Amino acid sequence: MLVGHSFGGINMQLYASRYPDEAAGMVLVDSAIAGLDFLRSMEPSFPSPVLTKTYATIGVTRLP
């Protein structure tokens, strides 16, 4: 079950479109609803989870 609020709703929709077997349901709370074409266009802009974890480990995510 996925739950997404606001921009997180777009992230949940992207996740569900990439991994349909892992998403049994989705609850979108005050979320933007995106079409599949929009989700595909957003996909390249999301950083790799491994890269994000590496940045968080060395403190780069706290710079802004």
Task: Indicate the topology.
Blueprint: E1 2-5, H1 7-18, E2 26-29, H2 36-42, H3 49-58
What does this structure look like?
This protein has helices at residues 7-18, 36-42, 49-58, and strands at residues 2-5, 26-29. A two-stranded parallel ribbon has the order 1-2. The longest helix is centred in the N-terminal third of the chain and has 12 residues, at 7-18. The model has no long low-confidence stretch (mean pLDDT 76). The chain is of the alpha+beta class. The chain is built from three helices and two strands, in the order βαβαα. The protein has one domain (2-62).
Q: Summarize this, please?
A:
The protein is of the alpha+beta class. It has helices at residues 7-18, 36-42, 49-58, and strands spanning 2-5, 26-29.
Pick out its properties.
single chain; about 60 residues; alpha+beta; two-stranded parallel sheet; about 45% helix
Topology order in helix (H) and strand (E) letters: EHEHH
Q: Biggest sheet, in brief?
A: 2 strands, parallel
Radius of gyration, whole Å:
13 Å
Strand content: 5-15%
Average per-residue pLDDT, rounded, comes to 76
Number of helices: 3
Structural class based on helices, strands and sheet pairing: alpha+beta
State the domain count. Answer: 1
The shape, in one word, is elongated
Oligomer: single chain
